[in-house]
Amino acid sequence: MFDVIYLSFGVAAWAIVGYKSLAWFRDRSNADLGLACVMTGGVATVFLFSAPSVYRAFDRLTGVANLAMVFLYSSVVVFAAGALVLLLRWTAGEGAAARARARTRARIAVGSVAALWAVAITGFVLGRPDAVEHPRDFSTAYTDSPGVMLFLVLYLAIFGMSSAALGTLCPRLAARLGRTYLARGLRLLAAGCWLGLGYCGCKVIGFVLSWAGHPAPWLSNGVAPLSASVAALMVLAGFALPAAGPRVAAWRRLRRLSPLWRTVTAHSPEVTMEASAWSVRWPFADLEWRANRQMAEIRDIQRGIRRHVESDAVDIARERARTVALDDRQLAAVAEAAALRRGLENRAVGHVPAHGADSVVVSSGTAAELGAEYEHLALVADVYHSPLIETVLTELRQRSSVVRG
Questions:
Q1: With contact defined as beta carbons under 8 Å apart, do 197 and 163 qualify?
Q2: If you average pLDDT over every residue of the chain, what do you get?
Q3: Dihedral, CA atoms, 123, 129, 130, 133, nearest 10 degrees?
Q4: How far apart are alpha carbons 156 and 197 in whole angstroms?
Q5: CA atoms of 113 and 105, how far apart (whole Å)
Q6: DSSP letter assigned to residue 351
Q7: Hey, CA dihedral for 135, 12, 155, 59, is it positive or negative?
Q8: CB-CB contact of 147 with 124 (8 Å)
Q9: Which of 13, 218, 295, 350 could form a disulfide with 222 if both were Cys (CB 3.0 to 4.6 A apart)?
Q10: Taking each helix axis from N to C terminus, what angle separates 224-265 and 181-211, rounded to the nearest 10 degrees?
Q11: What is the DSSP letter of 10?
Q12: Coil, strand, or helix at residue 310?
C-alpha cells in the first residue's frame, strides 16, 4: 500500500517539476523559478525514496543498508537550503548592492548547510550498527546510536529552521499581493512549512520518550511520516498554484464563454482568429490566450452591431429585469444579453433603427479588473437564452412593428 501511495505522489510531484522546469527553461533569468524547480525536485525525490520497494531496491543496488535514507533526507536538506536562499532573496531589498549582499549571504547559508550535512552524513556512516533495512522505522531503530542520532538531529534542525523561516515570511509577502493565485500559493506553502514543523516536533518528542524508556513508535513512525507527507503535498500545491490557478480559471471561463462565443461569431465569422495547430490537438493548450481571444471577439461583434440596437433597448431590459428582483450584476447581464440578441437579430434582416444605441456593453460595476469583465460576460452567456430575454425581445419586436406600420 505504501508503495502505491508514495509512488503515486512521486509521479504527480515529478510532473509538477517537469512543468515548472519547462517554464524555467523559457525564462532562465528567473532565479526564483529555478529555485522553485530545485525545491520541488527535492520534495519529489522524497516521495520516490519513501516507497519501501524503491528504498530497498536502491540499497540492494548500492550494497549499503539504509543508504536510501541518506538520499531521502538529503533531498529534504536540498529543499531546506533552497528555502533559505529564497528567504534571503525575498528580504534583500532593492538595488544592486542589496542583491549582491543577498547573493553573498546565500552562498554562506548554502555552504553552512552543506558543512552541517557533511557532519551529519559522517555520523550516519560511523554510527550505523547493523545491515538491517529500516525504511519505516529508521528513527526509532537507532535511538541508542550516537552517530545516527547526530545525523537525525542535524537533519531536523536544518529542516525545522528553514521551515519556520519560510512559514513566517510567506504570509507577510502574501498580504502584499492581494487576492492573487501567487498569494494563495504562498499561504499554502506556509501552511505546509508549519505542518513540517509539526513533523519535526513529533520526531523530537519520539526521541525523548525513547531515551526516557517510554518509546512511542506510533508517534515517530506513524504520526510524523503522515504529517510530513501531507506537508509535502501542501508545499507542492503551493508551488503549483500560481501557475495552475490562472489556467484552471481560464478553462472555467472558456467553458462558460464558449456557448455565447459560438453563437455570436456564427453571425460574424470574419472576426474570429484561426486557432493554433497545438490548440486543436490539445484542448488545454493556450487557455488564457483563447479566453482572451473569445472575449475580445465578442466585444468586437458588440461594437459592430450597436447601430442595429434601439437606443432604449437597454432601459427596457433593465425595467423588465427589475420586476423579477435581480441584483445589479444580473440586471447588467440581462440588459447586455438582450441588446446583443436584438442587435444580431436586426442586423440579420438589415434593420437599422432611427436612433441606435451608443453602446451595448453594460458595465456590471466599477471594477476594471479583467476577471470582473470575464465574470460579467459569463453571466451574459448564462442568461442569453433565458425566458426573460425572450420577453424583452418580444416587446421590442412589437414596438418595432408598430413604428414601421
A1: yes
A2: 84
A3: -40
A4: 9
A5: 12
A6: -
A7: positive
A8: yes
A9: 218
A10: 170
A11: H
A12: strand
Q: What is the mean pLDDT of residues 101-111?
A: 89
Q: Is 362 exposed, middle or buried (0-12, 13-18, 19+ CB in 10 A)?
A: buried
Q: What is the pLDDT of residues 7-57, one digit of tens each?
A: 888 888 888 888 888 878 877 778 888 888 888 999 899 998 988 899 999
Instruction: Report whether pLDDT(145) > 70.
Output: yes
Instruction: Give the CA radius of gyration of the chain.
Output: 30
Helices (H), 267-386: 277-281, 287-305, 313-322, 328-349, 370-383
In the block, residue with C-alpha cell 537525525? 152
Are 141 and 134 in contact, with CB atoms under 8 Å apart?
yes
Residue whose cell numbers read 507527507: 229
Element (H, E) at 14: helix 2-26
Q: What is the DSSP letter of 269?
A: G
- 327-345: average pLDDT: 86
Inter-axis angle of helices 224-265 and 287-305, to 10 degrees? 30
Beta strands in 170-284 (DSSP E): none
The answer to whether 293 and 253 are in contact (CB under 8 A) is no
Place of cell 503522515: 226
Q: What is the DSSP string of 52-93?
A: HHHHHHHHHHHT-TTHHHHHHHHHHHHHHHHHHHHHHHHTS-
pLDDT tens for residues 48-95? 898 889 999 999 998 888 999 999 999 999 999 988 888 888 887 777
